[in-house]
Design a protein that fits this description.
2 copies of one chain form a homodimer.
Chain A lengths: L11 E5 L1 H11 L1 H17 L10 E4 L4 E8 L3 E9 L11 E9 L5 E6 L1 H19 L6 E5 L5 H12 L3 E5 L3 H13 L3 E4 L3 H5 L4 E4 L6 E5 L9 E4 L8 E3 L1 H6 E5 L2 H7 L12 E2 H5 L12 E5 L4 H14 L7 E4 L10 H7 L2
Parallel strand pairs in A: 1-6, 7-8, 7-10, 8-9, 10-12, 11-13, 12-16, 14-15, 14-16
Antiparallel strand pairs in A: 1-17, 2-3, 3-4, 4-5, 5-6
Helix pairs in contact in A: 2-3, 2-4, 2-10, 3-4, 3-10
Chain lengths: 350, 350
């Protein structure tokens, strides 16, 4: 139907569908792509002061949350739309779906629309891997993965890529999820054991990654499960009322966060005094503050996911489109010959 | 390329392109469509307390602004992405482009993605017409249109549809814009005169609509130009530092606004004390406060455009798609067979 109303080049926005995102991931390789994205995320953390930052704008309902996450570095602007609906799974929908847009600041024109359900899984795992490389104890060889849903395998693959961790101990409240993850991860060459309790799963692990999805205060990890020297990635607690760790763990840990104004509201530290000391990750990446300083230190990445990570992911994908043409042109912007003559454009199409 | 990776029904989001939006407008008729949208906008103003409201989230730069405008009525969620870049025109780009998404609150899934450059022009004009019908003096027959850019003709057509105004007096700082608008509006059967000064244009008009685009404090209208009993729609002043009216006019007018927390920052009233009394339009639509009370009263609609108006426009278009199939299915959402097996979906596509 488009031939009679063919828009100009300016009106087209490259669109990366889910099918095309999968093609891109397979062309580059999932592990390589997350490693490459981690480099971009790290580079953007290092130039943190250049970004316009704001806590995400959340619309909460009984069933879940819909969020907009914008940011800009002054040259490009990006935002992500993402939902989180724990009850979706039982209805055959994804808990988390997302899409995003990258734009030019100078014209305000979008330059890419992309699916971000897969891309969010990649960037979340890439960020965890980056922080794990920064903070995990020396010689770490085993990771416990608590919560074996949609995010689990991405975490494992990214952390292996950056941290050489090949031994995994899995636990989920639903053993079907654990079996699914075990099968997928063994197919990727991991050494995997499955466990029937979180206590059992964390035994002998130096790294614990929690990525559960309940929208309620939960206590996936209790204090007695956490030995000295561990590194914890707490991925799942990412909105008000949603946490995974007992507060005693937080008091024993040195806590690293992305953006305190958002993490204080959404992260594990919503359980703590608003003045409780935390370290901003960008200070560590930029060499302005230390990461791990002692072998017996417990380090905690209180991950909630921040807009700059999505921005890094968007600009990474946008750069890939130059060599991998995995996109369709989308007629999303009106483009009249005379920019003031929108009415005339409409009438001439009639 | 889509055949080998065919997504399920759940993964598709209906997309209304610019070409399809033009088809929809021509099928319904632009005047009729704006009148229908005005009814939806009015209905949503009447149930104002049901909406989650927040001032739009703006990213300002030297060249312009990029904004996200979300809102929800608890059942549906909508947001618009819109830019405003006055310098775009000289570069062959639109000053304002926009797109938007409507979603279900219960699942968080988008149900429509649509162009909103044209739709914003329609909803802005529909809102002006609705407010003009509410506040204009009895027997008004002539409107001055100051600023003859992309929004001008839409304003005229919508206001004629709702208020039976057929006589127009045009002025723009650039007479090419005035000539373009005069030609377009005469083709629509309006009685049009063109003028070389705003003073001249407003003479004999009972309604003045300003829709200029400069991003700076401007004084399009001065106090001596405004006679008693007039109604003014100030459309163009819609971000910090961008105004169109001399403050003396504001002091003589009764001022009607959409959402005070946004209008105080972006509207004409940014020039006034933050406590200056204004009337919220929804109170008037809901019958809780009076509109025009005297023949000699100057009424001013300090329009900035609010998210609920975009929400009304989105749900209007979405409803039309049931009978007018002017959309393409977009593979925007990942939809694995097992919702927890995103990795497995990715691997099977490989």
């Amino acid at each position: 139907m488009k031939d009679t109303l063919q828009p100009s080049e300016l009106a087209y926005v490259p669109f990366v569908s889910v099918a095309n995102m999968m093609r891109l991931i397979h062309t580059i390789g999932p592990g390589q792509m997350m490693a490459d994205m981690a480099s971009v995320i790290e580079a953007d953390f290092k130039r943190w002061p250049e970004f316009d930052k704001t806590p995400r704008i959340a619309a909460h309902s009984e069933e879940g949350v819909i969020e907009l996450m914008p940011t800009s570095d002054g040259a490009q602007y990006g935002f992500k739309y993402v939902n989180g609906h724990p009850a979706n799974m039982a209805r055959g929908f994804q808990t988390v779906t997302a899409f995003g847009v990258l734009s030019r600041v100078d014209t305000g024109y979008p330059v890419m629309l992309t699916e971000m359900t897969l891309l969010t899984a990649l960037r979340t795992a890439a960020t965890s891997a980056l922080v794990t490389r920064l903070l995990a104890p020396k010689g770490a060889h085993t990771m416990a993965l608590i919560g074996n849903g949609a995010q689990c395998e991405f975490q494992a693959v990214a952390i292996r890529e950056l941290c050489k961790i090949n031994t995994l101990r899995l636990y989920d409240i639903d053993d079907k999820a654990t079996n699914k993850a075990a099968k997928n991860l063994r197919a990727q060459g991991f050494d995997v054991t499955t466990h029937t309790s979180p206590e059992d799963a964390v035994t002998g692990a130096q790294i614990i990654t929690t990525c559960t999805a309940d929208k309620q205060f939960a206590t996936i990890l209790t204090d007695n499960m956490i030995g000295s020297g561990m590194h914890i990635n707490a991925i799942g607690g990412d909105c008000p009322g949603k946490t995974e760790l007992h507060p005693d763990i937080l008091h024993r840990s040195d806590i690293f966060v992305e953006y305190p104004p958002q993490t204080r509201v959404e992260g594990e530290i919503q359980q703590l005094d608003p003045e409780h000391p935390v370290t901003e990750l960008w200070h560590v990446f930029a060499g302005q503050k230390p990461g791990r300083t002692r072998e017996d230190q417990i380090t905690l990445f209180d991950s909630v996911g921040f807009a700059t990570e999505d921005f890094s992911a968007l600009r990474y994908v946008h750069a890939q489109l130059e060599t991998h043409p995995f996109f369709d042109p989308l007629d999303m912007l009106a483009d009249p010959d005379d920019t003031r003559d929108l009415w005339g454009m409409l009438m001439r199409a009639g």
